[in-house]
Amino acid sequence: MKEREKANILLVDDKVENIFALEQILSSQDRNIIRANDGKEALRTVLNRDIDLIILDVQMPGMDGFEVAQILKSNKRSKDIPIIFATAEKKEHESALKGFEKGAVDYLYKPLNAEITEAKVSMLLRLQLQRKELIRKNLKLERYDLLINNSADIICIINAGTLKFEEVNLAANAILGYTAEEIKGSSILVYLDGEDRTGIEKLRKENKEKFSFETRVYSKGREIKWLNWNIVNKGGLWFANARDITGIKEAEEIKSYLSTVVRQSEDAIYLHDPDGKIISWNDGAEKIYGFTEAEALNMKIWNIVPEQFLAEMQAVINEILLGKKIESQEMNRVTKYGKMIDVAFSASVIADLDGNLKSVAITERDITQQKKTRQEIMELNADLNKNVLQLESTNNELESFSYSVSHDLRAPLRGVNAYTQIILEEYSGKFDMELQRLFQIIQTSAQRMDLLINDLLAFARMGKRTVRKVSLDFDKQVRQVVAELEGQGKIKAEVLIHPLKPAEGDAALIYQVWTNLISNAIKYSGKKTTPLIEIGFTESATEYIYSVKDNGTGFNMDYAHNLFGVFQRLHDNKDFEGTGIGLAIVKRVITKHSGSVWAEGEIDKGATFYFSLPRPTA
Q: How confident is the model at residue 213, as a pLDDT?
């Protein structure tokens, strides 16, 4: 037996003669005898050596055998080492029970009987070595179990006669969704469709020693999985390995689909070798260039390049062969019938796994009509830009004219108003009531015309003003508008302001919007017994929406489209004063902020005016 396979016996005794006597009895070629003269030395030896058996003297100075045994049995490394106590037969017989309690498996009584000693030691060594061998085998089995159950493939044993699973690893659960317990005892045929079942039955009858096959297997979730099986047939059992190739099959299917797509594509898709010889040609290429596949495979790429662009194309091909990828580069081509066309050219090289150049893959899209259309669009855009400039010039002239006319009209109107007032004050006693009434109508009309001109001037200025956006606190701004109107004595209604989210806008312009909308609500609800105005807010994914609601006179929704036009009024001036400019100003301001305005109403039930602004950028 090799040195490393010898059994190690530790003899622990404080008396050299006792150890010598044991050595004489137990020495053999398959044993190593190791000495320890006290308990501490014995413990050190056990920690540093692989010990198979300990013969331990009970009576030792310092640390007796019982103490040593107790420490050994409490240690994970030494707890399974068998211990034989050596003791005086007469003197220490009464302590035998204590020894067994401390972990002894047997006793040797002094003076030693050589045959009994050898027999006990041989038996305990044999049992200990068998235990160690069993541990080694169990460890090996555990490793095999880990190896099998950590495999991504299904590893199983199938009865060749019944085709039932006898053993299966954990991969079956990961691949098929069934637990090992669910699969054991079931037939492989249960998981297959009719065609694959027939194939399995045929393989069983052939009874080959080794064979492989592919099957579609239904998972627990009724999904189809492709498995590649490798079988070793031995002793009526199939030792099987099944690999999930579903991904490979799907990739093959996609590859086949892509091949069909390439074949049927309207674009020209073809390959040529490093020398320019065309080696594949799809239907799209035939449609664009007019050459059949048979014709193209006998051509080089230069056959479809106009002569004046050959040098340019050669330079591009050289770059591609060096690894450059081309995407949608506009180039010129010539068809079978000599027609010049424009194409969007894309290309890249195809190499093998070792990086060796195999071919150049080219995709070309006919953009001849697209380029023609693009040119037409450019010309139309140029005309449109010209018209826009003319329109802007006209609008500027109209605004200037409107501003000038409004400004020039104010002076005579103020004169009319002033002289009418003088006449009424100085000559009223000489007029009858009818004449005084007529002069008051003249004065009122002049004042209204002046107000109208002021609004027209404001409207004209609004069109020229540049929007300067800042973050606006609408809660604060609305309360300022309401406070200002209250200070002017205009508010006789209850104003309810709901929480309003801040937005971005021109502070002065948005202030004017709130002023106009709230003033309108006050005016048109003024005849109600308990007028109520609500300022509200809602939002969508792209904008904030603000509203001013009143319970006033309302309006007919059939005429809602007239509300925001200049001079457009839905109520008679004698009922509600106004010029018809306020809501037009609101619309112009909100439009300049990229927002929208609209209104909802019902006669005698009030109206709600809305305006929206884009959500602030984060």
A: 92
Query: Of the candidates 574, 586, 604, which has an alpha carbon nearest to the alpha carbon of residue 548?
Result: 586
Say how many Å lie between the first and final Cα of the chain, rounded.
82
Binned at pLDDT 50, 70 and 90, residue 260 comes out as confident
Distances (CA, A) of 144 to 148, 159, 566: 6, 21, 91
550 by DSSP, 3-state: which? strand
Query: Which of 166-170, 555-559, 564-568 shows the highest mean pLDDT?
Result: 166-170
Backbone angles phi, psi at 390, to 5 degrees: -65, -40
Q: What is the DSSP string of 167-202?
A: EE-THHHHHHS--HHHHTTSBGGGGB-HHHHHHHHH
pLDDT digits (tens, 9 = 90+) for 328-363: 899 999 999 999 999 999 998 887 766 676 788 899
Q: Which residue has the tokens 């590649």?
A: 228
The answer to whether 8 and 51 have CB atoms below 8 angstroms apart is: yes
Residue 497, strand partner residues: 535
* Chain-centre distance for alpha carbon 593: 35
56 sits in which H/E element: strand 53-57
Query: CA distances (Å), 233 to each of 157, 181, 491, in order?
Result: 10, 23, 100
State both tokens at 307: 């002569």
**Per-residue tokens: 401:** 């004219």
Of 371-375, 443-447, 450-454, give the range with the top mean pLDDT: 371-375
Report residue 494's pLDDT band, with 50, 70 and 90 as the boundaries.
Answer: confident
Which range is least confidently modeled, 365-369, 374-378, 421-425, 600-604? Answer: 421-425
Strand, coil or helix: 33: strand
**Look-up of token digits 């050898």:** 118
User: Do residues 399 and 460 touch, judged by C-beta distance below 8 A?
Assistant: yes
Beta strands 357-366 and 268-272 are antiparallel
Q: Measure the CA dihedral 123/127/130/135, to 10°.
A: -160
Distance, CA of 157 to CA of 239 (rounded, Å)? 5
Which pLDDT score is estimated for 398? 59
Helix, coil or strand: residue 144: helix
- In the numeric block, the tokens 């994914």 are attached to 541
Between strands 210-218 and 224-234, the pairing is: antiparallel
CA nearest to 158, candidates 236, 245, 219: 236
What are the tokens at 232? 């070793």
Other C-beta atoms lying within 10 Å of the C-beta of residue 224: 11
Q: What is the mean pLDDT of residues 574-603?
A: 79
**Count of H helices and E strands in the chain?**
17, 22
| Cα(359)–Cα(44) distance, integer angstroms | 74
Return d(Cα 246, Cα 174) in angstroms, integer.
13
DSSP string, 296-338: HTT-BGGGGS-GGGHHHHHHHHHHHHTT--EEEEEEEEE-TT-
- pLDDT beyond 80 at 123: yes
Dist CA 175 CA 252 (whole Å): 20
Residue 566: pLDDT band (50, 70, 90) is low
Query: CA 400, CA 394: separation in Å to the nearest integer?
Result: 10
